[in-house]
Amino acid sequence: MSAGRPVKMAVSPRSTYSLTVAIFISVGISTVEADATTWNYDKGTYGGPDNWFIKYTDCGGKMQSPINIPAGALYNPNLRYFNFSDYASTVGVNLTLTNKGGHTVEVEYSGTPIILRGGSLPDEYKLVQYHFHWGAQDSRGSEHLLDGKHFPMELHLVHHQAHLADVKVAMSHPFGLAVLGFFFQVSPYNNTKLDTLLEHFDLIRTVAPQQGEFSFFRSVLFGIFIGDSMFYLFCFAPDNETEIALFPLMDILPDNIDKLDYYRYFGSLTTPPCYETVIWSIATEHIPISEYQLNIFRSLYNERHLPLVNDYRPIQALNDRTVITTKRPTTTAATTTTPKATTNSLKDESDTTQIDDNVIHRFSE
């Protein structure tokens, strides 16, 4: 979250003391929201992406996300397909749709665990939530790029190692998180599989009090003193959330999900604290979405009552990392950038490739 509209007020020294006490009480009961105000997506501001590393040092690391996925990603026949069988289940599952303080819209899972298996991951991973990144225009919105190409929106499915307690523990644990990314592509037709999700957006349209409205108990306050008697008052509304009707996650994913090809690299969270503990898998298959449906996402508001758009981090340097893929090369030219030709299936572990040993260690079984 970032700061709301300032309201300039004059107060006496005595009332200043009283208000300062109220400020600390309010911040004390809303630590999550207060921490979220220390960063935003606004370029050129102190809390913007270029300055995240000041408070969150990992954001300045060498293995950050998102990246531009290169055309020369190395084909690795040892990478396995994912097992998405749990994605079809809704038994004992609860879904909560949240406008996350103007940073994104998120669907949180609770109840019966949804487990992701396979994919050459080092463990089973529990689905925690999924969220979206989108732009004000179709020309930009995704966090990752594919060979320099932008997409209007990107979906992230966030999982943590199933044996770890929760995301907070997992995010600081090596290989603690596994995130699956899906690009959206504009279609002339509505994607009816998104209807159940989108019909709830009216309930989370804004996280901010309406203009002129102020509620002390629903806000976080900060005072900045100007001289001896002036300060600025900011209102930070909490997340806006609602329970939503159950639907299988499988419904909104590509049809050929059981044979999903993907790109794989090791990276970070794309938001602070930017811990470099994420195994990324970016699907080669895209999800269709209409312009009308994209505009439903764009109709959401952030805590400043401005359109919630452009919630993506700038591309980060690949540095010495290697991107590998399950997708077989389709041309002779492409094979020159991949390991030696093989006819083995993805489940054949006997093949040895010329991929960097560190990549094999991290991503192959």
Show the helix and strand layout:
Blueprint lengths: L6 E4 L2 H16 L2 H6 L15 H4 L12 E2 L4 E2 L6 E2 L9 E7 L5 E7 L3 E4 L6 E10 L10 E2 L6 E9 L5 H4 L6 E11 L7 H4 L21 E7 L3 E7 L3 E4 L18 E6 L10 E6 L3 E4 H8 L25 E2 L6 H4 L21 H7 L2
Parallel strand pairs: 2-9, 3-18, 11-16, 11-17
Antiparallel strand pairs: 1-13, 4-7, 5-6, 5-14, 6-8, 7-8, 8-10, 10-11, 12-13, 15-16, 15-18
Quick structural overview:
The protein is α+β, with helices and mostly antiparallel strands. It has helices at residues 13-28, 31-36, 52-55, 167-170, 195-198, 291-298, 332-335, 357-363; strands at 7-10, 68-69, 74-75, 82-83, 93-99, 105-111, 115-118, 125-134, 145-146, 153-161, 177-187, 220-226, 230-236, 240-243, 262-267, 278-283, 287-290, 324-325.
